[in-house]
Fold this protein.
Amino acid sequence: MKYKRIVLKISGEALQNKKKNLNHDPEILAMVADQFKQMLSMGAEIAVVVGGGNIFRGLAGANSGTDRTTGDYMGMLATVINAMALQNALENEDIQTRVMTAIAMPAIAEPFIRRKAVRHLEKGRVVIFGAGTGNPYFTTDSAAALRASEIDADVLMKATKVDGIYTADPVKDPTAERFETISYQGALSKQLKVMDAAAFSLCMENDIPIVVFDFFKKNGMVDVFKGKDSGTLVTHG
């Protein structure tokens, strides 16, 4: 394995199936659980930051008249719903988990405490971080970079619908070119939208490599974990 302690960032939209009108597709959740089992058996320590866009996105709420701060808190609650759905799917496959949230809600999750999170990882539990950073105006990408920094992760794996970072959206622009590797500064200067600037900057400051990969590729997460050619690697270059 190339990495040991990983933080996986999954968007809320990655969990849904619009064709079946499902916010949480059981087949997608089962696919995640299967790959986690493989990585855990190889000694991985896995933490997950999940978005909430399949339920509510703060910025979209602001565009429709919701106060931005209120909308962002609503979005944080959506990430907790997704964290609980992922937890349930993993535990159905006998994977031990803990949900930790940036906003205290002790009836359903533990509050985020760095030392406890690290201890859970060392014991082989998957730690799912919910509620973003606990602050409005910060994305779950920033939350993933923050948590990766706090727990001394070896890599931040960013799950997307395409196989890496491109010069433009490859779905909309067939001439878009894929980067095999790119520096943090290059990603920032080119204003690549795969992650926000705060997330890139935080990983750069703490020397945490980012791998952007195709979430829906068979065993895509496992390939990244093993260090196989998969996705785009963002480092100091």
